[in-house]
C-alpha cells in the first residue's frame, strides 16, 4: 500500500548510470548485486526467473532456455558477450567452483534470495551510489532499463517496440509503451510542442 502523494511508479536507470552502478558494485565486491543488476538488465528476465539461474546457464552456452514462471512460456535467452565477461570475472573473483549452484543463493546456502529483500537492497544501493531516478527502483527496473536502452539505440522505432513487446510477452505495443513510460513521455511532448 502506498502513502498518499508517494510516487509508486517503477522507473528505469539511464544506461550510463547502469554501467557506473555495476562497475562500482564489482569494485566494492558486492558481487551478488553486481550480477543481479547485470543479468537482470542484459536478459530482461523477471525476478522470479532470475532467481532460478545457475552460473552454468550463463557460462556454458551462447543461449539458454527457460520456462517463465509467470507465463509458463518457453523462452530462449542469448548471453551477451559483455554479460558473459562480467559473470566470468565474478566467478573467478568469488572462487566459485560449483557452476551448477544458484547464482542468487541466500546467506544460508539453502535457497535463492527473496524478492522483497532484493527490492529493499536495490533502494539502498540507489541511495548509496546516488543514482538519480525519475520514480522508484524495484526489480522491474531491470526490464525497463533494457527496454529503454533498446528504444534509444534504435531511435525509438516501431520495430524496436515490436521486438520489446515480444521479448516482454506483452499482447500489444500500447502495453509495452505504457510499461516503459513512453506513452506518458509522448503525451508530455505534446504539451512541450505548444509554443508561440
UniProtKB/TrEMBL annotation:
Report domain Tyr recombinase positions.
Answer: 8-192
Name the Pfam families on file: Phage_integrase (PF00589)
Tell me if Protease is a UniProt keyword of this record. no
Record's keyword annotation contains Acetylation: no
Q: Tell me which domain of life the UniProt entry assigns to the organism this sequence originates from.
A: Bacteria
Q: What is this protein called?
A: Tyrosine-type recombinase/integrase
Q: What is the lineage of its organism?
A: Bacteria, Pseudomonadati, Bacteroidota, Flavobacteriia, Flavobacteriales
Question: What are the entry keywords?
Answer: DNA recombination
Amino acid at each position: 500500500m502506498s502513502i498518499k502523494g508517494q510516487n509508486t511508479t517503477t522507473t528505469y536507470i539511464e544506461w550510463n548510470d547502469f554501467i557506473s552502478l555495476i562497475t562500482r558494485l564489482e569494485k566494492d565486491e558486492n558481487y551478488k548485486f553486481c550480477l543481479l543488476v547485470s543479468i537482470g538488465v542484459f536478459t530482461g528476465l523477471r525476478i522470479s526467473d532470475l532467481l532460478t539461474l545457475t552460473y552454468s546457464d550463463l557460462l556454458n552456452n551462447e543461449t539458454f532456455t527457460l520456462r517463465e514462471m509467470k507465463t509458463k512460456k518457453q523462452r530462449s535467452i542469448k548471453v551477451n558477450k559483455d554479460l558473459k565477461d562480467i559473470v566470468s570475472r565474478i566467478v573467478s573473483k568469488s572462487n566459485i567452483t560449483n557452476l551448477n549452484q544458484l547464482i542468487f543463493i541466500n546467506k544460508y546456502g539453502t535457497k535463492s534470495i527473496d524478492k522483497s529483500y532484493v527490492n529493499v537492497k536495490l533502494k539502498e544501493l540507489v541511495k548509496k551510489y546516488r543514482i538519480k531516478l525519475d520514480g522508484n527502483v524495484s526489480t522491474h527496473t531491470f526490464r525497463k532499463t533494457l527496454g529503454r536502452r533498446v528504444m534509444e539505440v534504435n531511435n525509438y522505432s516501431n520495430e524496436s517496440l515490436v521486438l520489446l513487446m515480444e521479448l516482454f510477452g506483452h499482447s500489444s505495443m500500447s502495453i509495452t509503451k505504457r510499461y516503459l513510460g513512453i506513452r506518458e513521455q509522448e503525451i508530455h511532448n505534446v504539451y512541450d510542442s505548444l509554443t508561440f
